[in-house]
Amino acid sequence: MKITSRNANPWAWVPSVSFSQGVPYVAVMLLSTVMYKNLGISNADLAFYTAWLYLPWVVKPLWSPIVEMFGTKRRWTVLMQLVGGAGLAAVALTLHAPDFFRWTLVIFWLMAFSSATHDIASDGFYMLGLPTQRQQAAFVGVRSAFYKLAMISGQGGLVYLAGQLMKATGDPVHAWSVVFALMAVLFLALCGYHQLMLPRPGDDHRHTAGGALWQDFVHTFRSFFQKQEIGVTLGFLLLYRLGEAQLLKMAAPFLLDPRARGGLGLSTSDFGLVYGTIGVCALVLGGLAGGVVVSRFGLKRALMPMVVVMHVPDLVFVYLATALPDNLALVSLCLAVEQFGYGFGFAAFMLYMVLVADGEHKTAHYALCTGFMALGMMLPGMVSGWIQQQLGYQQFFIWACISTLPAFVLAARVRIPAEFGRQ
After folding, report:
1. Span 8-197: which CATH code?
2. How far is CA 317 from CA 36, 263, 321, 322, in A?
3. What is the CB-side half-sphere exposure of residue 274 using CA atoms within 13 A?
4. What is the DSSP letter of 131?
5. At 43, is the secondary structure helix, strand, or coil?
6. Which of 127, 86, 174 is nearest to 362 (CA)?
7. I need a labelling partner for 227 at 20 to 30 A (CA). Which of 285, 287, 356, 392 fits?
8. pLDDT per residue over 136-179, tens digit each?
9. What pLDDT score does 2 carry?
10. Residue ranges per domain, the chain?
């Protein structure tokens, strides 16, 4: 039976849509790296080609008017989930092909574009399905929690499952085919569920004045680059995570590579437990702690200490690459410290984007900020594998730590109102 209620209970759809936003992102940006490493792709190739997958998130503000002009946000949300589920199934099938690397990259590209489009549609749908600010505020934490649950389920649970299947069968292709097939079944089930359960807000309709919409978009785009000190702002958005962009792309290869090649030699299951579960939980806790600190002291006072807490723990990778400890508990502690610091400092970055976007076109300007943020991850990530192969893991992680210095310089230059972020 088709549900046509305009006022469906938010608990019936907000958690599941938030989870659905996380699943394809995890598959494209996280699982692909581990999978390609298990299947023998070199660090340089997997870093270069998977970093390109950030591009749809970089440019998604440019095609957001298309979502407005053609179809409702509800329809776009369900359609992109259907495309994502089909993409996951296609990855499972093409892994057995001789030229699997090329074909799976094409599919991941399509999934990345559908995921970015899904983000545009579902973010807009939340504001229509939860029409009051009180409702939107009440479900902010729910949305974040279920998005993070998708990350833990994917980067932790599914990677662990892939490792166990590899251990049982000795066949990584079969293991990852099963994992992506399971994800496809789950995602297509969510798509069907949302077709039935998503509300149908009266304000959810396509924008018929296409010419006016594009004029508004051009005006909004131009006004973003007319902001005061936009050069410093763009530098901060692009370089705040310069070190992290390289480090994160090489974290999985380092943890999985054998000790003879300078890695820690973790099994895929151990990687899923240590980095995908413990690490992500520490990341979430760090983000919560960062939010508390900013609300207590304000972003202006808290920014530089939060930059320090974010980047100094990167040194644990230098330690791990030097000492190569075989104690899983010690490795887990080191990664938890680094991920906690990353989450802590990233909270400041997110709030800074809110500050930059504040004004007449805050939603569109925030989307542009996130586009530059994604570009700041994409470009360094593309070359990180090549740099690692030239330097080795130990020297690469030292270089990644040196690459954090622009964040300190720019954090000292950005202008922030004294009370911004403080409650």
Report:
1. 1.20.1250.20
2. 22, 11, 6, 8
3. 25
4. -
5. helix
6. 127
7. 287
8. 666 766 777 788 888 888 889 999 999 999 999 999 999 999 99
9. 42
10. 8-197, 227-416
Q: Which range has the top average pLDDT, 189-198, 205-214, 350-359?
A: 189-198
Residue 71 per-residue DSSP state: S
The span from the CA of 202 to the CA of 117, in Å, is: 22
Residues 6 or more apart from 18 whose CB is under 8 A from it? 142, 143, 144, 145, 146, 147, 150
Rounded CA gap, 73 and 146, in Å?
Answer: 20
CB 344 within 8 A of CB 7: no
- To the nearest 10°, the Cα dihedral for 345, 347, 349, 350? 160
User: What is the pTM (predicted TM-score) of this model?
Assistant: 0.87
Architecture of domain 227-416 in CATH?
Up-down Bundle (1.20)
What are the tokens at 68? 């407005």
DSSP state of 98: T
For 5: left if phi > 0, alpha if psi spans -120 to 50, otherwise beta; the answer is: beta
Q: Which residues contact 421 (CB under 8 A, 6 or more apart)?
A: 294, 295, 298, 299, 302, 351, 355
DSSP helix/strand/coil, 242: helix
Question: Minimal CA–CA distance to 144: which of 8, 13, 284, 241?
Answer: 284
SS3 content of the chain, % helix, strand, coil (to 5): 80, 0, 20
Q: In the block, which residue shows the tokens 């939060």?
A: 306
Scan for tokens 């833990």, then name that residue.
152
User: CB under 8 Å to 256, separation ≥6 — which residues?
Assistant: 34, 37, 38, 263, 264, 265, 266, 268, 271
Pairwise CA distance, residues 28 & 33, whole Å = 8
